[in-house]
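WARN retry 2 of 3 for item q-0093 after timeout on previous attempt; input resubmitted unchanged.
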Amino acid sequence: MSDQEFEFDEPVEPTFVARLADLSDDVEEDERARALRAGLDDYELEEEDLAVLTGELVAEGGPTYLPALPVLAIVGRPNVGKSALVNRILGRREAVVEDKPGVTRDRVSYKAEWNGRKFTLVDTGGWEPNAKGIDASVALQAEIAVELADAVLFVVDAMVGATSTDERVVKMLRASGKPVILAGNKIDDARQEPEVAGLWSLGLGEPMPVSALHGRGVADMLDACMKVLPAVSAVAKEEFGGPRRVALIGRPNVGKSSLLNKAVGSERAVVNDLAGTTRDPIDEQVDLGGKVWRFVDTAGIRRRVHLQQGADFYASLRTAAALERAEVAVVLFDVTASISEADIRIVDMVLESGRSLVLAFNKWDQLEDERRRYLEREIEQDLAHVDWAPRVNISAKTGRHLEKLVPALEVALDSWDQRIPTGKFNAFLQELSMENPHPVRGGKQPRILFGTQASVRPPKFVLFTTGFLEEGYRRFITRRLRETYGFEGTPVEIGMRVREKRKR
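OK item q-0093 returned
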């Protein structure tokens, strides 16, 4: 590496932004951009280049309100096939399924459709009477799901028959007063259908034989559900749609579910000292700082070695999918433990996804003075590559400084959506190139011919150049961009297209 490369790591002159502001004249900038764009016609351009140069960014619409869809809750004792039935209804493998009881723990909502009718499907954990510890929390969530549903689909293992636990579930359902559809699962062929007859004893009317595994009888069951579901939900709120999806991610046991519960103001997610409690992503509408957000609690991401088997592996896949659907990721750190390789890998996963980023340091109320000194050093060393991300110190358990999340989220989302006009961007590039030209390499000096912002969410810039720009110089451009235009809380991508002059 030459000495010339190191000069791009020097601090930015404070006068740079001021000089750029002095140059700021929209008319002049637009004329300069048009002149530079016209100069590109002398170079060999591809179809993709023309698409970038002529493409227009379509602004996303503002927040909208969606109708309150009817809610169908699926309940039953553990391991009767509730999550498998959810996947069958959805037509895709969405819920985490494993052949052992107690995989699902939270009540998880999914958007479903049958014969043109949309509804919300709520999967729940297995309900058991007199449950202790984490199982009691799971049972409570199932009961809450029943209370917040328009109708209930009660799933029983038809091959086992009605058990005493099933009878207890029936009592709970009768007390709720909600319409109930009884489904006898695991009827995989016609020879097993007589087994369903024993379920009449539950007193819930005709049991419907279904097979979540093969799909037998599911259509008839859904037809019965549609008959009892109202057109508009009597219990659900009208849904708020818009660019406010926040994914809570981090290692197991850093406090993601506790943060969701504190933001919601109720025990929405199951919280336990057991690491890896959450399996399925939980969506919940949250009113925080006078604004409506959609928080998505996700499963903790473990080391790769622990991901190779069972429910935890599939839970990690759901976390990655939830991140793709989100617009901003809040990465939580446990301040009482050292920043690990797993934490850094999670941050890098957010960067690869292109989502905006907020760093939340949880359990701040437990932080000791000695640990604080080490923490600052760890942040400087391990998180230097995301020093542009807003930092918030919180305590999810007590709710301390939770309101500080809102301005951090707003800044990150605004930066994620930010668009720099082509004229301003080219004025910026010209001033930067004059002050710090690219070093000569192989007897040639690469020049930037033209630059444009190709897209937002995240901001992506394309530079048309006469030669290859070294990584150090591209980092330098990115740093200057951030110091000039902010871009706090969002990754910035700089791409380049090396083009040669047309041969005459």
